Structure prediction request, 413 residues.
Amino acid sequence: MKTLFINIKGLLLHPNEETKSPLRGKELGKSNILENAFLYIEQDKIVSFGQMADTPPECNDTIDCTGKFIIPSFCDSHTHIIFAATRESEFVDRINGLSYEQISANGGGILNSAKKLALASEESLLEEGQKRLDLMKFLGTGAVEIKSGYALTLEGELKMLRVIKKLKINNPDIEIKSTFLGAHAIPLEFKSQREKYISLINEVMIPAVAQEKLADYCDVFCETGFFTPEETLSILTTGIKNGLKPKVHANELGFSGGVQVGVKLGALSVDHLECLGDAEFEALKNSNTIATLLPGTAFFLGIHYAPARRIINENIALALASDYNPGTTPSGNMALVIALACIGMKMMPIEAINAATFNGSFAMEVQDKLGSITLGKKASFIITKPLSNLNIIPYEYGHDFIGSVYLSGNKIR
Prediction:
């Protein structure tokens, strides 16, 4: 099938197609908008674009985009959308003054999700996961990374990862990457013998995940009260030996040492980073590890935002993701993420859009397929409603700016 989009007010192209790495520093804030443009797709690929004066002959499926922009679909490189139940009671607890750590110590948080997931069938998890994925696609996401970590048992973690694998099979229009996060919390039964749980992860869980080829990455929640830097190093090293590339939850609640461990191991990304000091910046700016920021989490928990401006000024690669999960960010709306990045972290709108698209594609290794409007890449993009300019997207943060969504050439909205 061939489709021609004409009279596009602005086609957002990559600012520098010679760049084969994530945008850093001033490059993140550059835009390349082709005005009065056309876009031509065939099947699931972008085959041509340019200015209207060079438009090819109209085909049977020609779409008029007068007044509208076309931007790449979002690449959401950090989510936890496989869960059994929502946790709105904890939301109320936080309103009443309990901290994340207090809720977790009382058996809430991750352990609460683990208890509920143990009772859920694979079929119900798949059904609910598909609903969340459908909503994310409707909101413009064309690539998503999904983590396990709400089971904390061998059987449960494998169940979660098998659900993610089925989502991959059932949704060929969206790129899905899978991450093993068995090191998300210490189960209650291992509370006084945590070394046994670490051994279970290293000696049983990771080899089983690798044998079934259920994950692309291995992640650890390196935070005070969860996993130490030494434990994180041990688990991620085991993951590497089993073919799982490292990622790290780091420095969300304090200065955990997770950033340094991630950089030392060449992690694809270190995520959260609300707490960063000179040591963390020194490690990151001399690495290829991507700093993935999750402003929705800071917003929902009422904690301070990650220092995005310094990250950009230090020339560190920065991506944005949703952290969609039942406890700390019950939303996969990447337009809201972009708005919060601008409002809470003082990113410029084009910086936030680039971080949520092109740089996000690198944070989940789909940059050869997605992340920018580029010849040969997948035809996955968002057509806006009529807009005066792209700054309106974060400015009107409560409005739906999307007119249509195409993923792999198929109109899904």
Remarks:
- The domain at 2-72+373-411 is CATH 2.30.40.10 (Urease, subunit C; domain 1).
- The chain has a mean pLDDT of 96.
